[in-house]
From TrEMBL:
Keywords: Copper, Membrane, Signal-anchor, Transmembrane, Transmembrane helix. Belongs to the COX11/CtaG family. The chain crosses the membrane at residues 20-39. InterPro entries: CtaG/Cox11_dom_sf (IPR023471), Cyt_c_oxidase_assmbl_CtaG (IPR007533). This is Cytochrome c oxidase assembly protein CtaG. Exerts its effect at some terminal stage of cytochrome c oxidase synthesis, probably by being involved in the insertion of the copper B into subunit I. It comes from the Bacteria. It is a single-pass type II membrane protein. It is found in: Cell inner membrane.
Length: 184
C-alpha cells in the first residue's frame, strides 16, 4: 500500500515578516551600541588603544633624571702629544643631545698615527650611550706640531631610567684612550 505523507505548511503573512525584520534591525542597533561600550570599558581596564589604565601612577621625575658625566683622557706613553677634553664634566638630562670637543696636539716633529677608544663606567650603562658623531676607532694621522679638534656628539637614551640595572645611576665616566698605531 502506498501512503502519502502530508506536509503541513503554515502560512506566514507579510506583516509578520515585516515585524520580524524591524525587531531584528532594532536588536542589531542595540547590540552595536552595547558592544562599543563594552570595548571602551575593556580597553580602559587593559590600557589598550591609548586609553590609560585606571589607577596608573607614573613617576614623572624619571623622564627628567639628571646624569653627570665625567670626561677622562689617557694617552699612550709612546705618543708625544697632548689629548684633552674641553670640559671635565657636564650634567645633562637623559635624551639631551650634547656636543663636546676634544683637543689633540702633536708635540713632535714626526707624523703620528693614533686611534682613540672609549670606555663607559659603569659598564651596564654603556648600552644607553649613543654616539651621533665620534672620532673613536678611526686611525688618525697627525702632522707635526698640529692642533686638531675632535668633536663628539652623543646622548644618553632615556630608557636608562626604566632599566632595573641602570635606573639609579646618577653618574657616568667616559674615558678616551689615545693609542699609538705605529709610524706613518
Amino acid at each position: 500500500m502506498y501512503q502519502k505523507s502530508m506536509i503541513k505548511m503554515s502560512l506566514i503573512r507579510s506583516s509578520q515578516i515585516f515585524g520580524l525584520s524591524i525587531s531584528m534591525f532594532i536588536s542589531m542597533i542595540g547590540f552595536c551600541y552595547l558592544i562599543t561600550k563594552w570595548y571602551k570599558i575593556t580597553c580602559a581596564k587593559l590600557g589598550l588603544t591609548g586609553i590609560p589604565k585606571k589607577g596608573t601612577n607614573l613617576n614623572k621625575t624619571l623622564y627628567h633624571q639628571l646624569i653627570k658625566i665625567d670626561f677622562i683622557t689617557q694617552v699612550d706613553r709612546t705618543l708625544a702629544c697632548a689629548f684633552d677634553c674641553s670640559v671635565s664634566h657636564i650634567t645633562l638630562i637623559s635624551g639631551e643631545v650634547v656636543k663636546i670637543n676634544y683637543k689633540l696636539k702633536n708635540k713632535s716633529n714626526n707624523y703620528l698615527v693614533s686611534e682613540a677608544v672609549y670606555n663607559i663606567t659603569p659598564f651596564v650603562a654603556s648600552k644607553y650611550f649613543n654616539k651621533l658623531q665620534c672620532f673613536c676607532y678611526n686611525k688618525m694621522i697627525i702632522s707635526p706640531y698640529t692642533n686638531i679638534v675632535l668633536p663628539l656628539v652623543f646622548y644618553i637614551d632615556p630608557n636608562i631610567n626604566f632599566d632595573d640595572s641602570t635606573k639609579n645611576i646618577k653618574e657616568l665616566t667616559l674615558t678616551y684612550t689615545l693609542n699609538n698605531m705605529g709610524k706613518w
